[in-house]
């Protein structure tokens, strides 16, 4: 049976209508949200044993005056915040496990697609948009964080933000932390299930390398933990993307030690400085993936206006770093290894780990007196327009290659590149330990990054095309067969699934880029835990051929 009805796929629509008509006797839900809303509420009432008046404040029909606000609260890319962006028929905001279980059962019974959203940071918005009729299961109420310092573990619910995780750990201990992303409003649900990395990656690996248990609601509505879901499914939801397998309610994480004092710094060069950006990148490629694993030196490359020749553009290379130790030590390490950086103690700031989190989010925050409580702020009220893409570099780019690349970046004008060094712990973990395969042999990951604030559709086309052109220029320098990509840097340019007859083959295209050889195991697990492909999205793991 076809499991994904699409408007362009009439036979499937016919099957859907039949299923809906025969399985839901009370009402016939159409695309109008009000009847779907009533049917859905009835179903939820039945499965949760809550009255429909109790449930009405967790189910938002698209006719509800609060609907636009609930929808927009966790949109983090203005590209998907327009009047033409497809909207869900309903938003369900569960408060208890039983609400999640019932939502899965009821969405399945009316055969409507379910999109799961935690922090809403997906770069392509696939947690809250779809081409077919859909419901959002919005996890923002699931934000409890329980920190147990004695056992050095914490249970974090999927709708918590990374900033909340860092803050709650810091409240209990000044010498514990957790390796995860830099942006504090990113959600645990998408971030951990897609791998999750941040500036302690060379010392402690990915977030998922430090996950020891999880709670998930499967397609039958069962609430499972590591023991009851089994090691295969537990493996899959540590990097394979949660949304292909079920609804993740929480992860149990192992805390990591951090020193009381850490060091941050930022050093910049352009093509016009004495030590040029090119010189810097040549040396950075040798040092950053191989240096002390307590040191993470991110490199940002950005076309910027020249201060030397007015009206021209140059490329700026900025090294932004976290060292899990004191300033004297990192200055002496880099004097030997990275002389072109010219790092002096005056360029360094020694801070507590939690203040390093604030500094990485905004390097002026400490100067401006921002306090750790800022990490709890969810009310961003706005977001820019953005496009991201990713690549992996396995062989250093030559000086000639860099010079050529910088010319292309200047021509394009706006798209930047972020190089995130690997090595350290990342090289020690086998590539099949989790679904995330990009371990030993990768020098660094690239994030392509372009932001704009012009609302016109022409601008969106212009800047997304610009990122694609830079990606195309990079072909000779990056991984091949497959050209690898990072799931958390969601990019629909590398392939999407239309859930027709070629669903499996379509899945292979993006699946091998995100997961290399781990893709086959993900498919096997998917086929066992969700054979009818209820948990699906534009880039979900397909079920085995013949079952699509
Ligand atoms: C400003 C910004 C900074 C970022 N920085 C980093 C970084 O430093 N490091 C990094 O690794 N990544 C980073 N990312 C990428 C980020 O990790 C991913 O976008 C991640 O998927 C976001 O998780 P979320 O819960 O906020 O997103 P959502 O959009 O809510 O979800 C993303 C995906 O996960 C699924 N999902 C969400 N919750 C659940 C759940 N409970 N159960 C099952 N499936 C679920 C969704 O359906 C969707 O497919 C950044 C993104 C942004 C916008
Ligand atoms: C649902 O029912 C439970 C008891 O079964 C109750 O504790 C809860 O407050 C009810 N309401 C909601 C909105 O869940
Ligand atoms: C979405 O648009 C509304 C207005 O239509 C605006 O108030 C809100 O800030 C926007 N949010 C984002 C993330 O762009
Ligand atoms: C680093 O410190 C030196 C000495 O104080 C100073 O001249 C230089 O501008 C600083 N560099 C940066 C990037 O701040
Ligand atoms: C740049 O380098 C030249 C020679 O290599 C040197 O004479 C000059 O002082 C340097 N300028 C700066 C600003 O460091
Ligand atoms: C913060 O970074 C900007 C570049 O984005 C730089 O110009 C500025 O000097 C930095 N401020 C501090 C305090 O390091
Ligand atoms: C397209 O991008 C170029 C280069 O950044 C810019 O100069 C131009 O204004 C953009 N056009 C639109 C319509 O946004």
TrEMBL record:
Residues in the signal sequence: 1-26
Domain of life according to the entry: Eukaryota
Keywords: Disulfide bond, FAD, Flavoprotein, Glycoprotein, Signal
InterPro entries for the chain: BBE, FAD-bd_PCMH, FAD-bd_PCMH-like_sf, FAD-bd_PCMH_sub1, FAD-bd_PCMH_sub2, Oxid_FAD_bind_N
Cofactor annotation: FAD
Chain ranges of the FAD-binding PCMH-type domain: 84-258
Statement: the UniProt record of this protein carries the keyword Disulfide bond: yes
GO terms of biological process kind: cannabinoid biosynthetic process
SUPFAM superfamilies: FAD-binding/transporter-associated domain-like
GO molecular function, one term: FAD binding
PANTHER family: OS08G0158400 PROTEIN
Family statement: Belongs to the oxygen-dependent FAD-linked oxidoreductase family.
Protein name as annotated: FAD-binding PCMH-type domain-containing protein
Organism: Glycine max
Gene label: LOC100788233
């Amino acid at each position: 049976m076809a499991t994904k009805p699409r408007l362009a796929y009439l036979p499937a629509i016919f099957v859907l209508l039949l299923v809906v008509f025969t399985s839901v006797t009370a009402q016939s839900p159409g695309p109008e949200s009000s009847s779907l809303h009533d049917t859905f509420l009835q179903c939820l009432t039945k499965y949760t044993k809550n009255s429909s008046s109790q449930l009405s404040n967790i189910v938002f029909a698209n006719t509800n005056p609060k609907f636009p606000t609930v929808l927009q609260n966790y949109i983090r890319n203005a590209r998907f915040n327009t009047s033409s962006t497809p909207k869900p028929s309903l938003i369900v905001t569960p408060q208890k496990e039983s609400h999640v279980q019932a939502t899965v059962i009821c969405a399945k019974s009316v055969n409507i697609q379910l999109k799961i959203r935690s922090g809403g940071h997906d770069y392509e918005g696939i947690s809250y948009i779809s081409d077919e009729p859909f419901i959002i299961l919005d996890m923002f109420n699931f934000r409890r964080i329980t920190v147990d310092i004695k056992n050095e573990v914490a249970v974090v619910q999927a709708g918590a933000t990374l900033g909340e995780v860092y803050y709650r750990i810091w409240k209990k201990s000044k010498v514990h932390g957790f390796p995860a992303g830099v942006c504090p409003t990113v959600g645990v649900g998408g971030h951990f299930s897609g791998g999750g990395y941040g500036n302690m990656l060379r010392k402690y690996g990915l977030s998922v390398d430090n996950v020891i248990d999880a709670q998930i609601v499967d397609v039958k509505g069962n609430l499972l933990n590591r023991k009851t879901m089994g090691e295969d499914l537990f493996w899959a939801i540590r990097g394979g993307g949660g949304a292909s397998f079920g609804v993740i309610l929480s992860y149990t994480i192992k805390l990591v030690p951090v020193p009381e004092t850490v060091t941050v710094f930022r050093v910049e060069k352009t093509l016009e400085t004495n030590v040029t950006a090119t010189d810097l990148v040549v040396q950075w490629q040798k040092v950053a993936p191989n240096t002390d694993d307590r040191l993470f030196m991110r490199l940002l490359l950005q076309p910027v206006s020249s201060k030397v020749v007015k009206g021209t553009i140059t490329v700026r290379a900025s090294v932004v770093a976290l060292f899990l130790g004191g300033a004297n030590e990192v200055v002496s390490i880099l004097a030997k290894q990275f002389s072109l950086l010219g790092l002096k103690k005056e360029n360094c700031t020694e801070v507590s780990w939690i203040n390093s989190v604030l500094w990485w989010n905004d390097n002026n925050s400490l100067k401006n007196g921002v306090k750790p409580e800022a990490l709890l702020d969810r009310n961003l009220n706005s977001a820019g327009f953005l496009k991201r893409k990713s690549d992996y570099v396995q062989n250093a780019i030559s000086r000639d290659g860099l010079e050529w690349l910088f010319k292309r970046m200047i021509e394009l004008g706006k798209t930047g590149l972020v190089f995130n060094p690997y090595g350290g712990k990342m090289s020690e973990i086998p590539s099949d330990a989790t679904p995330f395969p990009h371990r030993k042999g990768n020098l660094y990951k690239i994030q392509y990054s372009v932001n704009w604030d012009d609302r016109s559709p022409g601008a969106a086309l212009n800047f997304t095309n610009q990122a694609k052109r830079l990606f195309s220029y990079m072909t000779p320098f990056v991984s091949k067969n497959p050209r690898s990509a990072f799931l958390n840097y969601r990019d629909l340019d590398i392939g999407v699934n239309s859930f027709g007859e070629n669903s499996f083959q379509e899945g292979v295209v993006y699946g091998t880029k995100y997961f290399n050889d781990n893709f086959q195991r993900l498919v096997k697990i998917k086929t066992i835990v969700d054979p009818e492909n209820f948990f699906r999205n534009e880039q979900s793991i397909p079920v085995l051929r013949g079952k699509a």
